[in-house]
Amino acid sequence: MPLTDLPLTLRPLAGPLPMWQGAADAATWPAAAHAVQEAGGRLVSLWGKMSARASVAAAYAVQEGLVWLELPLADGAATYPDLAAIFPAAGRMQRALYDLLGIAPEGAADTRPWLNHGAWPKGWFPLHAGARAPAPGALQDYPFVPVTGDGVHEIAVGPVHAGIIEPGHFRFSVVGEKILRLEARLGYTHKGIDALFAQTPPEAGHCLAARVSGDSAVAYAWAYCMALESIRGIAVPTRAQWLRALLLERERVANHLGDLGALGNDAGFAFGLTRFSRLREDWLRLNRAAFGHRLLMDCLVPGGVAADLQAGERDALRAQCDAVETEVRKLKAIYEEHAGLQDRFLTTGRVAPPLAAHLGLAGLAGRASGQAFDLRADHPLPPYDALGVNMATHRGGDVAARVTVRFEETLESLRLLRAMLEDLPEGACQAALPPPQGGRGAGWVEGWRGEVFVALELTPDGQHIERCHCHDPSWHNWPAIEHAVIGNIVPDFPLINKSFNLSYSGHDR
Q1: Three-state SS for 60?
Q2: Partners of 59 in the beta sheet?
Q3: For residue 51, pLDDT beyond 80
Q4: What is the rounded average pLDDT for all residues in the chain?
Q5: Residue 158: pLDDT above 90?
Q6: Is it the case that residue 1 has pLDDT exceeding 70?
């Protein structure tokens, strides 16, 4: 049943992408989810808010665009129909929603706390209006699912790791070195960003959004700016649109270069790490010289970009694209012809396309498992609509497939960057901001890891942020790692984990 056949009133949501919003009730909330699933759509995000009355919201990707549905709860109600049975990725989102707001899904199979590690007292929810942080209490044991049988034992890894990575706990159930089950425990990097948005002026919210996950600063800032610009009716100048895309592709390349080196190193090929690390460092240094920040923080602002690009900088960026492409192509051939690497990559950490579709695997990891979704191609913003994007996909679903997708996306981004630099339109790079006004808007951007989504609601006078929800694609992909490692050996976990390279910080917010 399509959404249009449900008793829902969908209204267009202002903005550059096709989006709609509507209200559901207890009956149409799960019915809409079933309709999206049956039509091949996807759950993008799920969140809630507590203002005059509580509500739960979900964003769905459908063929036509994005649908933002809201379920207002009756006064005093604190439950809503469970969606995890329809979209498994909703499970952890619903658990986090309860920890933040105290709103619970009815009949959910898993109701264990997710963000609350025990320091938040029972009955205290940080996103309630006027909530004051209590004194930390004692941490509580997390009820991991046990695995029993002859020879089965557990290996606990983290949350403190030997490498310089963010904290996360991984509980392995193994026989010998073979992994029978993995269960992850995240939430250690929860920063309270949702509450911080309520204390941030709307015109400055892009700075906070850019810091949700530092390796995706451009994607988050763009999504936030898109949402705010939609509310205020800001027309972004054409040159600024192209510069935003240029920054996004440079962010994509920087992360792929780092991951390709790290994947070589995790398979014992230190040569790959040294070569790709040098390329990435040169790339970041030119970011600093041309745009003022290695990770491109605060380069996007509401209405456009913070600074224009000069002619000399265009030449340097173009020359770097040519040089990096030459080296990446050589390294791609080395990786593909290296028997030791391929022995470690092939069949390792496989997520077959049917499982990927069931789990809602997103972004580059999804494309490596046959999930051909890329907003730059499916719903292209300028300049992608003019340049076209060749989507990189693979059906192998293993580490080798994720490596291949990274190589292909890097080369495609270099092509796009050269085209943008060659045909960069003249004109202004910022639009003036009109007077504040209230409303809601959404931003939806294909970051290097996958879809970044921002839902923004301003107070009626437009002076304050009522609710800003930022969603990272890692929410969809962390559960997939638990499936990808089954049947593999423990020493392959770092390689499998790196092949996804998911965000702890973006996931925990």
Answers
A1: strand
A2: 45, 68
A3: no
A4: 93
A5: no
A6: no
Yes or no: say if 507 and 184 are a contact pair by the CB < 8 Å rule.
Answer: no
Q: Helix axis angle, 238-266 relative to 493-500, nearest 10°?
A: 170
- Tokens for 73? 């709860």
Angle at 321 (CA atoms; ends 247, 340), nearest 5 degrees: 105
Query: Which two tokens mark 357?
Result: 């579709």
Residue 169 tokens read as 């706990």
Q: How many domains does the chain have?
A: 3
pLDDT tens for each residue of 221-245: 999 999 999 999 999 999 999 999 9
Select the more confidently predicted residue: 193 or 140: 193
- Residue 502: give its domain's CATH number: 3.30.390
- At residue 399, the 3 state secondary structure works out as helix
Residue closest to 482 by CA, chosen among 256, 144, 191: 144
pLDDT tens for each residue of 319-362: 999 999 999 999 999 999 999 999 999 999 999 999 999 999 99
- Domain at 72, CATH number: 3.30.460.80
Whole-number pLDDT of residue 332: 97
Q: Which of 432, 456, 486 is the last residue of a domain?
A: 432
Task: Yes or no: say if 219 and 482 are a contact pair by the CB < 8 Å rule.
Answer: no
Q: Are residues 166 and 91 in the same domain?
A: no
Please report which helix (H) or strand (E) contains residue 72, including its range.
strand 65-72
Contact between 80 and 56 (Cβ < 8 Å) = yes
pLDDT tens digits, one per residue of 263-299: 999 999 999 999 999 999 999 999 999 999 999 999 9
Angle between helices 311-337 and 238-266 (to 10 degrees): 30
Residue 130's pLDDT band, with cuts at 50, 70 and 90, is low
> Strand ranges (DSSP E) for 93-177?
104-106, 152-157, 169-175
- Sequence-distant (6+) residues with CB within 8 A of 300 are 206, 210, 218, 221, 222, 225, 244, 247, 306
| 78 contacts 127 by C-beta, under 8 angstroms | no
In-domain check, residue 64: yes
CB 327 within 8 A of CB 277: no
pLDDT in tens, 98-107: 999 999 999 8
Q: Which two tokens stand for residue 310?
A: 């000069």
For residues 416 and 294, membership in a common domain is answered with yes
Domain hosting residue 182, numbered range = 149-191+472-509
Which CATH number belongs to the domain containing residue 402 in this structure?
A: 1.10.645.10
Give the Cα separation of 34 and 464 in Å (integer).
35
* Contacts of 466 by beta carbon, 8 Å cutoff, 6+ apart: 49, 51, 198, 457, 458, 459
| Same domain flag for 251 and 174 | no
The region, left, alpha or beta by phi > 0 then psi within -120 to 50, assigned to residue 391 is beta
**% of the chain beyond a pLDDT of 90:** 82
3-state secondary structure of 440: strand
Q: How far is it, in rounded angstroms, from Cα 429 to Cα 304? A: 6
Distance (Å, whole) CA 348 – CA 490: 11
